[in-house]
Structures are given as structure tokens and as C-alpha cells.
Amino acid sequence: MNRPQSVEKMTQIIKKLPGIGPKMAERISYHILKMPQSEVNRLIDSINSGRQKMKYCRICFNLNESDPCPICSDNTREKNILCVVETPQDLIAVSKVKEYNGLYFVLGGALSPLDAIGPDDIKISQLIERLKNDKIGEVIIATDTDSKGETTALYLAQTIKPLGIKVSRLGYGLPVGGDIEYADEITISRAIAGRKEM
């Protein structure tokens, strides 16, 4: 038996969300239909409110309710160091680290030649413009370690270094509490390459 048309419509929309396949989308659709109407209204209101209130910071392109965002407006932050991330979620992850108190820049994605995503499709030109106008002494590239993130990191390093700005990359290696015997060769080789004197 086919799903009712209204469930089918919901499922088709929900499965477009990242990480949600057809089965999960169907489960979520039926779960929403079982929710009390007041909860459904709250869900709809929160989505509408988020879409209306959230905007991109004109300085760092982070998603926030204010422009400029609280990080760019914070005068206590180090203004000469900039951490470049792919997404607002990455910015949130890095911002939890107490050791970093610099500024950020959100690229809005990563380079991916196979997906036809080039430098003009993410915010690389805006980053270069910011680096030319602000007094940034170091750029920390904090892109993912997958092929897209590595490609983006290499491209950024080659583009930024001629500006006379120090470029560094997040260190990689063994996770805290991890067992060496379970680590793959790439992780161990990066851990060895990123070793520090004790």
C-alpha cells in the first residue's frame, strides 16, 4: 500500500535534510503527525522565526541574529589572528576551545572539483579582501580533513602566503584517550609529523 499523499509530501521534503534517508524521513513524518497540534505549531513557528531572524555576519559570514555577530563585535578578541572554517557549525566547534581567542571567517563550503564547486562558489574572494584590509598576522586553516577540506586548505595556503601572512593548519593526530593500535596509518603519520618537543 502506498503512503498517503500528505505523508509522501512531508517525506520528500524531510529527506532533503542532511543525513536523513528515505526511511528516517518517513519515520519523522509519521512522528510529526502523531505530535499534539500545539507542538507542531511550535515546530513551524521556530522554523519560521529562525528563517526570519538569522542572517549572515557581513564581516565573517557566520550565521547569527545580529550583524555584525557577537564574535566580530567583541573588542577583547585578538584581532590579528583569523581562523578559517567551512561552516557555522565548525565555527561553534572551534569556539568551544578556550585556547583560541581570535577572529573567524566562514567560507560557506569547501572546494570540490568533482561537484563543480570552485573558488567563486565559496567566499574565498571575500576572505582575501578581508585579509588585505585588516591587519591579520596569521590565518589558521581549520577545514575538514577529507579530500575537499585538504584541497581547500592547499588552495588557501597558496593564495594567502603571497600576501605575507603566516598560514597554519590545525594539527592532526591521535585523539585524547585513543589507543594507538586502533589508529590508521594516516592518523599515526600525521601524529608523528605534528609532534612537539617536550
Write out key terms for the chains shown.
two-stranded antiparallel ribbon; single chain; Dna Topoisomerase Vi A Subunit, Chain: A, domain 2; alpha/beta; Helicase, Ruva Protein, domain 3; globular; 43% helix; 8 helices; 198 residues; 2 domains; 11% strand; four-stranded parallel beta sheet
Helical content (DSSP H or I, runs of 4+): 40-55%
Question: Would you identify the regions where 5 or more consecutive residues have pLDDT less than 50?
Answer: none
The string of secondary-structure elements, in order, is HHHEEHEHEHEHEH
- The percentage of residues in β strands lies in 5-15%
Count of separate structural domains:
2
Largest sheet: 4 strands, parallel
**CATH architecture annotation name of the largest domain:** 3-Layer(aba) Sandwich
- Rg over C-alpha atoms, rounded to the nearest angstrom: 21 Å
Q: What is the CATH topology descriptor of the largest domain?
A: Dna Topoisomerase Vi A Subunit, Chain: A, domain 2
Number of helices: 8
What does the oligomeric state look like here?
single chain
Alpha-beta classification: alpha/beta
- Give the N-to-C terminal Cα separation: 66 Å
Count of extended strands: 6
Q: What is the overall shape?
A: globular
Q: What is the highest CATH level, the class of the largest domain? A: Alpha Beta
Topology (SSEs and partners):
Blueprint: H1 5-14, H2 22-34, H3 37-53, E1 55-56, E2 63-64, H4 70-73, E3 81-85, H5 88-95, E4 103-106, H6 124-133, E5 138-141, H7 147-160, E6 166-169, H8 185-193
Parallel strand pairs: 3-4, 3-5, 5-6
Antiparallel strand pairs: 1-2
Helix pairs in contact: 1-2
